[in-house]
Amino acid sequence: MAALGSCSKEYNALLEQLQKQTDLMQDTSSLLDPYIRIQGLDVPKLREHCREHPGAFPSEEDLQGLGRRGFLQTLNATLGHVMQRLAALEQQLPKAQDLKRSRLNTEDLEKLQMARPNVLGLRNNVYCMAQLQDISDTNESTIVGRGTSQLPVPVPASDSFQRKLEGCRFLHGYHRFMHSVGRVFSKWRKSPSRSRRHSPRRALRKEVRRTRPSRRGKRLMPKGQLPR
């Protein structure tokens, strides 16, 4: 991972940014719904087919079972594959002028075109959060969904309808995945950062308090008088 700009060193502020980003990206109105309308899939029978492929993305249970470092690495890797899939989907979208001729809303196209910049911004903050996590175990396990590890297989022009459905299923899984990511981050807010809880500076302050002599139980002696 690598940051595109400077990183915030405030844990709570950075976590709040991540939470807001995942809240936005799990909302189907930001991506899936516009895609369905543009591709002509906004029909109840067709919507029924817009369901995530099992195993395409890591499950919430798997994400919850990871340590913080493993979770951030898994999230970064998955978002990298999402970027590739989104780039392929963009190539399938109609042009703005074609939408106007069909009397479709060009705002939907603008929302779809913002998807990759939004994912890139999230990846940047994931990198920054990884820098704040003082975790010595660099060999934590990671999980990447089977479906996200492969680029879309080119579909013949005659199968354009099937290609639209595959894009719909992918986006459905993407939103579900971001919902699970948001739930993981919400638990981080409830429990302090491991790096802060185990920081050397905090440990040193505790040690000083323990070694400082206590005045409890000592009887004050009058001036000029020695203890017997």
TrEMBL record:
Pfam families: LIF_OSM. The keyword Protease does not apply. SMART domains: LIF_OSM (SM00080). Its main location: secreted. Keywords: Cytokine, Disulfide bond, Secreted, Signal. InterPro entries: 4_helix_cytokine-like_core, Leukemia_IF/oncostatin, Leukemia_IF/oncostatin_CS, OSM. GO terms for biological process: immune response; negative regulation of hormone secretion; oncostatin-M-mediated signaling pathway; positive regulation of cell population proliferation; positive regulation of inflammatory response; positive regulation of interleukin-17 production; positive regulation of MAPK cascade; positive regulation of phosphatidylinositol 3-kinase/protein kinase B signal transduction. GO terms for cellular component: extracellular space. Residues 189-228 are annotated as: Disordered. It is found in: Secreted. Residues 189-221 have a biased composition (Basic residues). GO terms for molecular function: cytokine activity; growth factor activity; oncostatin-M receptor binding. Belongs to the LIF/OSM family. This is Oncostatin M. The lineage of its organism: Eukaryota, Metazoa, Chordata, Craniata, Vertebrata. The gene is OSM.
